[in-house]
Amino acid sequence: MASSRLFTWKVISLSVQKSSFPCYKQASLYKLVYYHKYAAVQQNFNVENRPDSGSDTEYEEEKIKDISELKVKILEAAVNFVPEYGWSKKSLAHGAKSLGLSTAAHGLIESGGADLVHYFNFSSNRKLEQHLKENAAENESCIAISFRTDLKNFLENALEFRLRMVIPFVSNWPEAMALMLFPTQIPADTKNLLDMADQIWHYSGDKSLDMSWYSKRLSVAAAYKACELSLIQDKSSDFSDTFEFLERRVDTVTEALQLLDKVNDSSKDLTEFTAGALITARNLLGINRWFR
Description:
Elements: H1 2-18, H2 22-26, H3 28-43, H4 55-79, H5 82-85, H6 89-98, H7 113-134, H8 149-164, H9 173-179, H10 186-203, H11 212-233, H12 240-265, H13 271-285, H14 287-290
């Protein structure tokens, strides 16, 4: 049984690498995440479940794990060179060189600068998650309390914390945004964006199980993207104009979602009112425009 499971994992690994599905073929960040999960699953097998003649299997596991970790290290090092060389293979080459590797090692990162952007967004989301987790006790007042000032402050603070991670790279951020417009990069970019929104609502104490679950996450994602666009055009001191814009966007989000909550609580017989209110709320949130 254990041997069969190990063989299945190896087949899946090879099929993912050769798949024509663009999300896996082009966005190596997904491969990195997959490799890490693969290695973790293999490490969690009990010793007694491993095959007796597993030297080859263990070698393959270690090889995959080593490649995965090496890619992450190159990407992590390359981010430091983005202000000078942009989201490019040149940054990756300098990142590899700073680790004592050949500059040709940047070839391990299949999608080049696009994967570097994905990595930055992925790691920034992890930093945001850690920040929210550390401050979860202070945000307990938000739990089960919808659309109050404390929730607005929570959303503003969370989004500002995430936006400030972009500021050191703001002069290069239009390049990053352009890379994310390629069709092959949209799935990974969208996943990172929605993961961020999900983290924010999770740590706000949101426990909704109805359709508002989607509206809340899409609204925060749309607000963040709007502020990101503002950030790259902002010439004010400490980007104050963008953060004032953020406050207005969060006000709009909470007001529109409050309307959705009222609609959910309204009589099911008011179908025309409900449909109209939902359209109004979606327009206020910018969700319709975002997905055109």
